[in-house]
From TrEMBL:
Protein name, as recorded: Latexin
Cystatin LXN-type domain residues: 1-99, 119-222
Domain of life: Eukaryota
Entry's family note: Belongs to the protease inhibitor I47 (latexin) family.
Location of this chain's protein in the cell: Cytoplasm
Protein species of origin: Circaetus pectoralis (black-chested snake-eagle)
GO cellular component: cytoplasm; extracellular space
Location, primary (coarse class): cytoplasm
Keywords noted in UniProt: Acetylation, Cytoplasm, Heparin-binding, Inflammatory response, Protease inhibitor, Repeat
Gene, per the UniProt record: Lxn
Amino acid sequence: SAMELPPSHHRANRAAALAAGYVCYRRGSPGRGLRLRTVRRAGRRDIDGVGPKYHLELVLEDIVDEDSTVNCTAEVLYHLGNKNIAPDVQFTIEGELKNTDEADNIFYSQIKSLEKELVAENIPDSHGHVSPEMEPIRLLAWVASGYVMWQNSTENTKFQFAQIKHVKQVKRSDEYLEFDYMILLHEMVSQEIIPWQMTVLWHPQHGVQVTQDSRQPKHASE
């Protein structure tokens, strides 16, 4: 049986954070990161022998341009008792996302024209500042972290991207860009800050792929 949840309900918010991360992973780029602005409606029903399914109406905003918002409906199904299966997420975006082709292509050309592979750390810095040239690097990590959140979320977690501790570009012989990131994820329920390594491929025509990721021991980021 379906149950309406208040939009502020903690379970609704965990499912909404997961849905927003997943949408961002599927639709984001170095020119566009998305995040949850508000939950407009939420419902939950138990599917026998499978697990709880959430129905959500969300408003997402662009990280770089907070005035740019889209409505999104999403369904999140958590698999009961099986930690190894990522939740199923389906979504529909109403209206158009802002076109980022130009920003994406500029970033792609800039990285391709570097004489040496890019290396950077602590983005944002301790004051929350991100330099304009590092903004696409941060957005790419933000988008890729949506994949990590999706793969590792349960009904009892709520992940949030905190910081890039370290990033280095990996040389490739094909047209893709590859970056090796060490990021920090904030798990809001336990209040843990978790270092996470992820290898990210990106090409303007093919979107973001996380080819490898692994949770790191606490001290890894120090």
